[in-house]
Structure formats: structure tokens, C-alpha cells
Design a protein that fits this description.
By secondary structure, this protein is α+β, with helices and mostly antiparallel strands. It contains 7 helices and 17 strands.
Length: about 325
Amino acid sequence: MKATLFAAIATCLVVTTGAVAADESDEGGGPKSIAVDAVAQTRFGVMIAVLKGAAAPTGTTSTGRVLDPSTLLQADSELTAAAASFAASRAEVDRTQKLYSEDRTVSRRAVEAAHAQAQADLQKVNAARRLLALEWGGGVADLQAHRRAELIDDLSHARAELVRVEVPAGTPVPRAGSTLEVRGNAPADVFAGTVLGNMPLADPRLQTRGVLVEVKGDATRLPIGQMLSAEVPAAEVAGTDGVVLPRGSLLRRDARIWVYVQTAPTTFVRRQVRDYKPISTGWFVAQGFAPGDRVVAGGAAALLGVESPAPADKDKDKD
């Protein structure tokens, strides 16, 4: 009786959905192919993309975030004040030393007090610079005074913004002075920025290193806190041309990434994605897929439901 019931269910699945998992499996015990007729494909919203050849990317797509510069302005103000005090105390050392050397119009104690004050003011300068470096990195703290003043002035008058760009693990950290591309939400929001240096703290959520990037021009209209995407330059790898998989084609199952490939007008099989690299237009893969492959770019989740339907309740009848 149970065998008859199972046969009836399978027949109903084919008739009502036009989709059923095939009996055979791929070589090596891989995922089974599934058959989905044209009517069911339309109902599931299945869309097909034909893969084209693509050159290996020369960079890695990452994320960025527009930073609030207020703490930088405050830290720079404290460093500037400390530097001014040190300059004044150094001038006082020169004055008292000259007076003491020429005609002893000041005491030796006054000279020593001037030296002590200058040393204390120097310590304040060093402390202010260290605090600046701890929060914003040595790339900012070690800027020459006039260059840092220009940066602060541009930030104060909304002529520049600062962006933290995350550097994925295994990607070379861009050097100071190099150029990075950052992108906003709109297609036209593509900007070139200059790397100022490394950020001293890791991102608490992503646990990645970051670099501080200065952007100017139209990029200054980006609001503080906005998330961006960025292209981090990476060393080129010869002989790794491949294809770009659409983002909508990707599925996650069993801690792995999969894509459905259309092997015939009504037949699909799930194929694992290996050695992928996220880029702005999708995921670049150098192996496992080839130009001309037809992959499911929409409706892939529905196909996964056909291949692995939810388990039915166990039959409690004892016949």
C-alpha cells in the first residue's frame, strides 16, 4: 500500500509542478540532475545567463565606509596647540640662555626652568602625535605640518572626505600615495582616492585591516557613515582567465557555494563553485565553468527546492 502511495505522490509532483529529480546522478556521486519543463520554469522565475569569457581581475573588491573626521580635527587641534607651546618654550630657552651667557642678567635657575618647560612641552607634542597615530594611523600623524593643515582645512570646508577601505586577507596592503577606486550606490558614484596610510585598528566585525583613503571632488557629497565598495589593487596572476558568475546564480548549501547549470532545455544540475573571487559584476572563477555554459541567474532557490524537497511527515499507519 505504501509503494502505491509513493508512486501516486511522484506522479502528482510531475503533473502539478512539471519538475522532478532525475534518477541518475553525476559521476562521482555528485548532485542529481533535475527535470523542469518550460511551464514550471516560468512559474519558478527561472532566468538563464550564458557565460562569457573574462580576463582575470587585477584587484579585489572590498568594502569601505565614509568616516566622521571630527575626532581627527580635535586631535590635530591638540597637536597644533602642543607644538605652538613647544615652539614658545624653545624660544624662551634661547632667550634665557643668551642672557645668562652674555651678562648674567638671568640666573642659572631661570635657564634650567626654561629647559624643563621646553622638555615638558616636547613630551606633550609627542603624546599628542602618538594619540593621533593610535586612532588615525601613522600616515596622518607623520604628515608634514603644512600637508596635514591642508587636509584639515579641506575636511573642515567639505572639499575632502576620509574613507576607511577594508583589505581582505591575502591581499597586499596598498602603499601610501597609491590610488584606490571607491563606488557609491549610484552607477555614477565612482571616485578615485589617495591612500594616506594604514589604520591601526582592525574592523571589529570583519576582523580585517584597513587603509585610510582621501577622496575629493564630487565624492564629498557622500554622507558620513555610508557604506561603499572599493577595488583594492592586487598582484596579477598569469593564466587565470575564466568567467564571471552572476550574483543571482549563487546558492549556499552544506557550507559550499553552488550554481545550477542548464544541460538541456528542461534539465539542470547543481555544480560547485571553487576558487572564486568576488568582483563588482559578480564572482570570477578560473575553473569549473567555461564560456557558453548556461547558468541559472534567477529562480535558483526554487530549483533547489525541487531537488531537495522538504521531508514529508512519516506515515503513522501500520499496514
